[in-house]
Amino acid sequence: MNTISDIMFWISTGLLVPVVVLLIALFFRALLLVGSFFGQYAAIRKTDKLIREQMEGLTADNVERLAEQLPAKSNSLVVVYMRRILEAKDSSAQVQRLLANFEIAADKDLATSKTLTKLGPILGLMGTLIPMGPALVGLSTGDIASMAYN
Q1: Tens digits of per-residue pLDDT, 5-26?
Q2: pLDDT, tens digit, for every residue of 90-144?
Q3: From the DSSP assignment, how many helices (H) and strands (E) are in the chain?
Q4: DSSP letter assigned to residue 59
């Protein structure tokens, strides 16, 4: 039984440092994602009113006017793909391909956030439970100083 406890102690001790390093790296990545989110939010707020007004009054006759009024320097995913779709409006197959590419690009944009959302709680739980093992061993032997240290 002592051998199994020693093996579990070595494994938990060996995993503690990589888990903490990954938690720190993911925390900084999350901060970068928050900054990116606010940048995208500001760009969307800027172009949202213009695009909504144009889309509400959109008919087959004034599609060209929509293309002219789209922001020229916007790197927003929606504006880029709207511009491409308006250029290829005569080809139904090309428009369908562009819509599929837009969906893929939007999903790729969200992939990092989804990964952080899944990995964060797992690593947080591991970072909590790994040091708890040696602390509980210290508690079971009555060594309060060892438990407090761990």
Answers
A1: 778 778 777 877 888 888 888 8
A2: 888 999 999 999 999 989 888 878 888 888 888 888 777 777 776 776 677 776 7
A3: 5, 0
A4: -
Token pair of 91 as six digits: 């080809």
Whole-number Å distance between alpha carbons of 91 and 93: 5
Q: What is the CA radius of gyration of the chain?
A: 27
CB atoms within 10 A of CB 54: 18
From residue 15, give the alpha-carbon distance in Å to each of 11, 20, 25, 37, 123: 6, 9, 16, 32, 11
Q: What CA–CA distance (Å, rounded) separates 21 from 1?
A: 31
pTM of the model: 0.60
